[in-house]
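Aim 2 progress update. The chain analyzed this quarter is reproduced below.
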Amino acid sequence: MEKDELPKYADITPPAWQQGPPRPKRIFRLMALGFVSYMAYSAYVLCANTAKVPSTLSVDRLQEEYSMCAKLRHVPEDATGVRDINARFVNGTRPYLIRNATVWAPTGEATFEWQAADVFVEYGLIQRVEAGISAQDIPADCEIFDAHGRPLTTGIIDMHSHAGEGAIASLAMDGNELSNDITPYVKSLDAIDPLQPEFDWIKSGGVTTTLILPGSGNNMGGEAFVMKTAVGTKSGRAELSQQDMFADPDQTWRYMKMACGENAKRVYGRVGERGPFSRMGEAWEFRHAFEEASAMVSAQDDWCAAADVNGVESMQSYLPQDLHWESLGAVLRGQIRVNTHCYTIPDLEMYVRLTNEFKFQVRAFHHAHQTYLLPEVLKRAWGEAPASALFAVSLCADSVLLIY
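Predicted C-alpha cells:
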C-alpha cells in the first residue's frame, strides 16, 4: 500500500475497548435456557403440590358441614295441592260430623254467606261442607254433634300474640331479652309455657292458631313461632308440650320479630349510657346487624362454592358459622318471614330502605297505623309490598286479629 493512500475500511480493526464482550457460545445459551426452564417447572410442581396438601381437618366434620350447604341454599315454598291428612293428626282420633250448623261458607270465588249446612271432619281435615250429609256417607265410628243452628266458622288466625310468654298478672315476663337491643338469636319458643290458662281463654274466643312473637322492647327481638291453642289431653292432644302445639310440625317456615320506634328508644335510650337514643340510632343498629350477618353469609357461600369445586376433603377450614348471626343470615337467605312492629311514617320508610339495602323481604308491618298514608312507599319494599296487621279493636292491648 502506498504511503499516500488511505487505508481501506475492510482493513481497519476497531480497538478492543470498542468491540464489547465476546458473544457466548451456543452451548452456554442452551444451558442457560435449560436452567431457566427447570426452575420454572420446579416452581410449578411446588405450587401444585402445595395446593394439594391433604387437609388435616376431620373429614367426617367437613362432610357434615358440607351437607349444610344444601340447607343454606334452600328457600322454603308454601305447600300446594290437596292433603290426605293433617300433619298434626293424632292417630286414633275419630272422625266427626257437626249437623244443623249455620256455617260461614264460600258461595263463589271471593264471596261468603251464612248458610245451613253439615260439616264432616276426618284425619284432621274438613272433608265436606254441605246440607244433609247422611249417615250412610260417613264412617261407622263417626261422632255426631248437633249444633242446633248455632253459627260455625273456621278458626281465627291471630298473627300477633305473646301468649304463654309470661305468668298471669305479669308476675314473670319472658317475652323480651333486654340484655341487648339486637337479639335475633333468641326464640320465643324457649319462653312459651303450655300450662298458662290464657291458651284456653284464647281458644274459647275462636282463635285456633297464633303467631307467638318476642316483645317489641328490642329493635331485633328474635324468632317467633306459629302455634295452635289446642294443647293437652282436654283438647284432644297427645301431650302437654310446646312441640305438640306447632301449627306446622315440619317447621317449613321460620319467623322473626323486629320493631321500630318508641319502645326500643324507651328501653335503651339513656344519655351517656347505652342506646339507641334516637330513630337515627335505631337505623344504625339495624344496619350494623345486617352488615355483620351479610359478612357471615358471604363467607359461607364462598366456602360452599370452594368445596363444590375442589372437594370438601381439600378444605383447609371448617364452614364459617356464628350462632349470634345464624337467624339473621337466614333472613337474608329468604328462609325467615320477618314481621316488624312499626307505627309511624319515619319508621316505615326507614325500614323499607333497609329491605332494599340488604335485599330481604318484610312480610308484615304490625300495628302500622300510618301505613294507609303511604301505600306507594310500601310498594317500594324489596320483593313485594308487605301486609299491614292492625288492631282488631282499638282498646285491645296487644293482639292482632284482622289483616288489611
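The radius of gyration is 36 Å. The first helix runs from residue 16 to 19. These observations will guide the mutagenesis experiments scheduled for the next reporting period.
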